[in-house]
Amino acid sequence: MKAVILQPSKCVTQSGRAFKKYLLVAVESKEQRYQEIHHQWTGCSDPVAQIKMQFDTLDDAINFAKQNNIEYEYIKATLPKPRKKSYASNFIVST
């Protein structure tokens, strides 16, 4: 069993710069996913694939994976680079 440790990015609808402060541990499934015909849902016969756990620190997430003998991969979050923009640029109309 392999898990991925990552910090989720903010949603598209969020305009602030405060990112989610927790780390997410998601277990990867070895089972093939299938699409349910009538409702168009995606499913998997492996119930472990649905597990997602939240931790406050990276050390807590890594210790959990080590204590439960789970291989893990840490994916570091990429933060957007701040763009320098003047207040006057809000009022420039391009034609």
From TrEMBL:
What is the protein name for this chain? NADH dehydrogenase ubiquinone iron-sulfur protein 4
Taxonomic classification, please?
Bacteria, Pseudomonadati, Pseudomonadota, Alphaproteobacteria, Rickettsiales
- Which keywords are on file for this protein? Electron transport, Membrane, Respiratory chain, Transit peptide, Transport, Ubiquinone
Task: Give the GO cellular component terms, alphabetically.
Answer: membrane
Q: Where in the cell is it found?
A: Membrane
Q: Which organism is it from?
A: Candidatus Phycorickettsia trachydisci
* Database matches in InterPro entries: NADH_UbQ_FeS_4_mit-like, NDUFS4-like_sf
One short Pfam name that applies is: NDUS4
GO BP terms, alphabetized: electron transport chain
